[in-house]
Specification:
Strand content: under 5%
Number of helices: 10
Number of strands: 2
Structural class: mainly alpha
Order of helices and strands: HHEHHHHHHHHE
Distance between the termini: 116 Å
Low-confidence stretches: 52-56
Radius of gyration: 61 Å
């Protein structure tokens, strides 16, 4: 506290002894005080970390587009997803056709004598192979027969021992020998068909011509032909002038006239002619349609491709 004397002195000096007035309370200060007095809102709890989304199943890839081949494109290699329609020949087919063509050209250079000699040699080789195969089969079969008829050791059964010793490859030589025999016979027949006519055909032809001229067969054949023609003409004249032929002709004529004049026959004949005319008209229409359809198909563009 300030003493009274001091207060007087201060008053004399112009200083008041009263306390200064408090500052004016504004609306903004009131808002600040309310906000300070209000309890602080609770802090929000931290959110739990979100689980990573499950990996979505990748959609299946779209089916591969099927290429469409035009005539200007290269040949398409077939795959399981493509169906090739009307394309150029594959390299394998081209190679096969060219190889067969070359083989045919080579075979065309062979003469008749060369073919006959080759067939004879093939027949000989097939005969030799047949004998070898049959000999192998016979020897092995004999061994098996000896084993099957002998006493087996250690109390075994003979037929089981023979079966265990059997070699099916040698037993198969029997049908193989039969096949070789058929091939040998076929080649021998081909040789005979080519060789003997070529060798003896000209000789036989010359001999036949000689005998034909020597025996005057041409003159005898002409005489026989004339006699046959004369006899045939006489027989026909006699038969045509006989009463039996005249009566038969008259009977046939009367029967024909009677049948033709029957109303039923006339009606059937008319219906048959009408049906034939309708059939002819329909057939003509169908043929015209087919021709027009063929012309339209030829005019339409045709392209090769794959579906």
């Amino acid at each position: 506290m300030v003493p009274e004397e001091d207060e007087d002195d201060l008053a004399a000096m112009g200083f008041g002894t009263t306390a200064p007035a408090p500052p004016e309370h504004t609306a903004a200060d009131a808002i600040e005080e309310e906000s300070a007095a209000a309890p602080a809102p609770p802090l929000p709890e931290p959110a739990a970390p979100a689980e990573p989304p499950a990996a979505a199943t990748a959609p299946p890839p779209p089916p591969a587009a099927v290429p469409v081949r035009t005539p200007a494109q290269t040949p398409i290699t077939p795959t399981p997803d493509t169906v090739v329609v009307d394309v150029e020949p594959s390299p394998g087919a081209v190679k096969f056709i060219s190889t067969v063509g070359e083989a045919g050209s080579t075979l065309a250079t062979l003469g008749a004598s060369e073919v006959s000699d080759g067939m004879l040699e093939l027949s000989r080789q097939s005969t030799k192979n047949m004998k070898d195969s049959f000999g192998t089969f016979k020897t092995h079969l004999l061994d098996l027969a000896v084993t099957a008829t002998s006493d087996a050791p250690n109390g075994q059964k003979s037929w089981k021992l023979a079966a265990s010793q059997a070699e099916w490859r040698k037993l198969a030589d029997l049908p193989l020998a039969a096949l070789y025999a058929v091939i040998a016979l076929a080649c021998l027949c081909a040789f005979a068909v080519i060789y003997y006519p070529k060798q003896y055909g000209p000789l036989l032809l010359d001999k036949a011509k000689t005998k034909f001229i020597e025996w005057h067969l041409d003159e005898k054949a002409a005489v026989a032909k004339t006699a046959i023609v004369d006899c045939s003409a006489q027989a026909y004249d006699v038969a045509a002038k006989s009463q039996l032929a005249a009566k038969g002709a008259e009977t046939i004529s009367s029967a024909y006239t009677t049948v033709v004049n029957q109303p039923a026959v006339v009606a059937v004949s008319a219906k048959t002619g009408e049906a034939a005319e309708q059939l002819r008209s329909k057939l003509a229409e169908k043929l015209l349609e087919m021709r027009e359809g063929g012309e339209m198909a030829e005019a339409a563009p045709v392209g090769n491709g794959a579906v």
